[in-house]
Specification:
alpha/beta; four-stranded mixed sheet; 5 helices
């Protein structure tokens, strides 16, 4: 199945091929390789509009996930037909992520991958509204990032490390 990546902004250059490869590896680590996923690299304007429309928070954010299926955390969808082999769409606020990376002195490409991992976990039902949910999501992010690190030699860590 595929990872459809679209760069819908022009403010920040995005290395699409490495990002797509990383998302494919993360999807495999989640056991979801047979599912399609959409990945949109968005600018600040689009992220603010989407966050306002869907979360009633018209402010910038780094990632928004729109699952195709409603599943409990850690469950894979059970498609009934070929068209349902879709996890959903992830919008990466690349302009906002880039600004945060510059301010913190972090690597932008690594931050995109970690943020995409976070978005993938949201597509599979993981949340972080409570400490228990956060622990479960953190553990899953850690697990899939460790697999990616093993494959690539990177040393990526979960986004939600200090949430609770």
């Amino acid at each position: 199945m595929s990872v459809a990546l679209r760069n819908a902004q022009r403010a920040v250059p995005v290395r699409r091929a490495p990002l797509r490869r990383a998302v494919c590896a993360l999807r495999a680590a989640l056991g979801a390789s047979r599912f399609d996923v959409g990945l949109v690299c968005a600018g600040n304007g689009l992220m603010r509009r989407l966050n306002g429309a869907y979360r009633q928070r018209p402010e910038l954010t780094d990632v928004l996930s729109f699952p195709f299926h409603r599943v409990a955390a850690g469950e894979l969808p059970r498609p009934r037909c070929r068209d349902e082999y879709n996890l959903g769409d992830i919008f990466l606020g690349v302009e906002y992520i880039h600004q945060q990376c510059r301010a913190a002195g972090e690597d932008f490409d690594s931050a995109l991958v970690v943020t995409a991992a976070h978005g993938l976990c949201h597509l599979l039902g993981y949340q972080h509204d409570t400490k228990t949910e956060w622990q479960q999501m953190y553990q899953k992010e850690m697990e899939i990032l460790e697999e990616l690190n093993r494959l690539t030699g990177a040393s990526l860590r979960p986004l939600t490390a200090g949430l609770f």
